[in-house]
Structure formats: C-alpha cells, structure tokens
Amino acid sequence: MSSLMWFRKGLRLHDNPALLAAIEGAKHVYPVFILDPYFLRPDPTAPSPGSTRVGINRIQFLLQSLQDLDQGLQARGSRLLLVHGDPVEIIPSMITQWRVNRLCFERDTEPYAKERDARVKELAAELGIKELVTPSTHTLFDPDETIARNKGHVPTSYGQFCKAIGTPAEPLEAPTSIPGPDPEKKGIPTISVPTLTELGYGESDQEFLQQIVKGGETEALARLEVMMAKTDWVAKFEKPKTDPSAFAEPATTVLSPYLKFGCLSPRLFYSKLMAIYQKKTGHSKPPQSLEGQLLWREFFYTVGHATPRFDCMVGNSLCKQVPWTDDDALLAAWRDAKTGYPWIDAIMTQLRQQGWMHHLARHAVACFLTRGDLFVYWEKGRDVFDRLLIDGDWSINNGNWLWLSASAFFSQYFRIYSPITFGQKYDKSGKYIRRFLPVLKDFPAQYIYEPWKAPLDVQKAAKCVIGVDYPGPIVDHAEASKQCKERMAAAYALAKQSTDLPSQEAVEELRRTVNPGGVKRKEQYGAAGSMAPAGKKSKGDIRKYLKK
Ligand SMILES: Cc1cc2nc3c(=O)[nH]c(=O)nc-3n(C[C@H](O)[C@H](O)[C@H](O)COP(=O)(O)OP(=O)(O)OC[C@H]3O[C@@H](n4cnc5c(N)ncnc54)[C@H](O)[C@@H]3O)c2cc1C
Questions:
Q1: What's the gap in Å between 150 CA and the centre of ligand 1?
Q2: Which UniProt keywords apply (predicted)?
Q3: Please, what CATH class does the domain formed by 2-136 belong to?
Q4: From ligand 1's centre to the CA of 219, what distance in Å?
C-alpha cells in the first residue's frame, strides 16, 4: 500500500486525520505540497510589478510553515515533496508514476478548492484509487453535518448556528514515525522551499515585511501554550473589551494566521479552552469569549460553504443590494492610507506592514470604506484585505465584510464608527497613530486624531503641514456619514418591498436617486488622496503660500 498525502491547508502533524489515514498500513507515504499558480498570479496593485495576489507577509508565513512542516516530517523519517504547477494535472500524474493506492487530503470549502478537489477526485477514481480520505478538520465541525442538525437549513444567524452544533471531537496526537517515499520511484521532487525573491517579490515589497508572528506548527503550538498559560485572561476574555490600539502586545491571541494555514488545529485550541473553563467558574461565554470567537469562525465557514455567491453582492440571497459607489480614487486613498483620518490611515498602514490588525480596527476601516463614509463596494475592500492579511481567509473575510457593511447578519447600519472618537476611546495620546504614521509623531495629543484642526504654527512646529506632508480629510465625516445613512435606509426600504432580491435595474434606479454625483469630497482639499488645498496647484505653490 502506498499513499499520497496532499497538504494544502492543514500544515501540521498534530490532529491531522488525513495524515494518520495515509500512514495506516502504508509501506510508502508521499507527503506533497503544490505551489499552485492560481494563488501566485500577478497583482497589478502590488508595489513590485512581478509580485502576486498574496501579500508578502502571508507568503512569508506560508514559506516558513512549509519549512517547519518539512522539518517535522524529516524528524519522523520522511520529507516534504514540493512541486510547482496545477494540482489537477500534478496529482493524477503522481498517482500513476508512484503507483499510489490511497489519496488523502483535508476537505476544503472555498469555491476554488471545491471545484479543484471535485476534479481531482474524478481523475483519481478514473485512475483506480479505491481509498480516498478527505476529513473535514479545518473546522471544529463538518459544515454539512451542522446544516443537517439544523434540519437541513443553513443557519443564517450565530444564535441559530450555536443551537445546531454538537461537541467537537478531541484532537489527535501527531504520528511518531512516517514511512518515507519509495527511493526507487522516478520523479520524486527534490526542490526546496523557495525564497521570496524566487517567487517574484521585489525590494519594494520587502519594505512591507514586518512579521509579528512566524509561520509553522512549532510556532503555533508555542504561541498557543503561551496564551493558554494566561488562564485568568482566557477565562475573562471578552472581545469587545479588548484594545484595538495595543500594538506592542496585541490584546487578542494572534492565532488567526496559524488557524488560517492549519498550523494549529481548531480542535486543539478548543480543547485547551475547555480545560481552562472547567477550572474557572464564571468564565466568559459566547459570543464574546474565546470559545465564542472560534464559533464565529465556524459560523462563517458553515454559511459561506452553503450560500451560493457568498462572496458577491449580486446574486447573493443573504446580501442587501446597495447602490455602492465604484470610485477607485476613494478606494485607493483608503487602501494607501491617505484618507487624512489618522486613525484610519494608521490601521491601513499596520495592515500593509504587518498583515494583521485587531478585530475592532478591522471594524473601523471596513465601516469607513463602506456604510460609514466612503460608500465604496464592500467587495473592493474585501479584496484588499484578502491580499494583505496573513490570516486572509475566504469564509471569514467575506462573512465579516458582509457584516460590517450591514449587507448581511447585521442590520444597524446607522451605528457608525467615528474615525476620530472611536480610536480616542482607547488611546487618547495617539501612541498607535505615532507608531504607524511617523509623519504625525510630533503632533500634540489634542490634535493627533484631527490634525487639520491644528493652527498652522502648531502644524509647522510638528514638522507636518496638512495638505503638504499629510493629506487633509477626504470627506467631512459628519456630512458623509449622514449621506451614507440615507442611502442605506433607501436600500433597506427597497429590500422590504419583496422577499426576492431586488433587480439590478431597481438598484441602478436607486443609485440615480440617492447617490447621483457619487461621494462628495471635502472641498477644501481637492481630489481624493491629493494633498493640494483647492485652488492650489503644486507643493511648491503651497510652501510659498504657507510662508506668507
Ligand atoms: C472586515 C473584517 C475582515 C476579517 N477578515 C478576516 C480574515 O480574513 N481571516 C480571519 O481569520 N479573520 C478575519 N476577521 C476576523 C477577526 O478580525 C480575526 O479573526 C481576528 O482579529 C484575529 O485575531 P486573533 O487571532 O487575535 O483573534 P482572537 O480574538 O484571539 O480569536 C481567536 C480566533 O477566533 C477566530 N475569530 C475571531 N474573531 C472572528 C470573527 N469575527 N469571525 C470569524 N472568526 C473569528 C479567529 O480564527 C481567531 O484567530 C475579519 C474581521 C473583519 C471585521
């Protein structure tokens, strides 16, 4: 018997039922990882022309995870076989070349993966593979089982979801030894884990590489241990009470990148939480507790798996049809941290530099881009997060953007985060802003969230003149948020007219009525992202004007 163990996510040895099944009674096991060009296609908005749709912090995390997996396999008598190419071609050719009888891989629920895996399964069956093992271990529960427990209905609220679930299975131990590939077989890959440069990431990308966590199962288990050792903190954890501006020591676990790549099993994380809860009476509860956070992940996986077009507005039965603005200049200002609102720009800078931000910081910028201020399509913001987050995850990212844009799951569109006072609540002196926007570091605390309000002599003393060294606010928040509320109210009223999704013609009509000229910029500062006050042409002109 020989088995092909195809690693995709699930980059771990502990609690890996697919791997254990591959080993069971096998003489040879071929542990393979395929660098799929689908994920490595070029991104026109990336800093280096050759770099790909996966941001540098995430790709570095993946490469480290592969190195760690290879070391773990080697310590057990095997090694990772790394290949570049299309899995739909590569897996069948490996099955034939190495005379594999058993194919094992963890089930994936993302649309691209579902299509790819369905094709691979078909081809494997044609090649006579009798044993196909694809356990659902990226999540605590199999999404289809949860739906079956919910009487065949997709749970569309967290409450419904929590009522439908059972108890997760206990995590399994890592294997102690793994039979190696057959050395007699031809075509066993020998390439090692590539470098960032080999994958096309240039120097201008590498400027943004400020990893806060290193990839791999070893690091994941060590981080889990450190977090779970803080038993009081775990027992009292309530997400809304954690501080989004804490950057030196984040206020949450930062285990999301490990869960994304499966370096950490969610069942192991869950079982450690349960062990702590058993000893601590009065511990916090879902949805705010750490258990509650893992259940949010499960919820979005379940609903995302079973909702057609979950990642789109049009044709998504859960999603409000909103006449968003397709304004690339506003999008670029938000993406490139040039909105002129320091709290927003600092968060977007942290995203680009570190690939991670606190949950409430994600709330703030997602709300600002969509229903709070700029009224830009949520899918456009989702794409930026998808590229830059280390934990960028199809189900969770789409689920949260649907939520934050009040398109699904959450309907209080009128509760808007202020880009000024929300950050101030946690960080009066603006330490977070000074860290991520050093151009503002010398501003007095009084003005750090609204630097455009500082008198010119204060701006000059801080060596940062607004409109010259840092942009003025792109929109007037009071006015923009009022307009956003009116437009959302109209979209909600349209949704009420029928139980069916409104037609796109109706949405277009609404756009003409409530959003005729798009989003109004703050006139004083000219075009979005521009640093020039209205009527002034160049930085040189502005400097002359300021000297007067
Ligand atoms: C607009 C937006 C986009 C997001 N995109 C992603 C994404 O692509 N990938 C991602 O992992 N998280 C995403 N989140 C959810 C959340 O912000 C992160 O999971 C969390 O901040 C990760 O930090 P942590 O590991 O310290 O979380 P902790 O608070 O320590 O939580 C533990 C784990 O629970 C899960 N979790 C926590 N919050 C959520 C949530 N709201 N939804 C689903 N699972 C959750 C994560 O796996 C996390 O690692 C997004 C949130 C928003 C508002």
A1: 25
A2: FAD, Flavoprotein, Lyase
A3: alpha beta
A4: 19
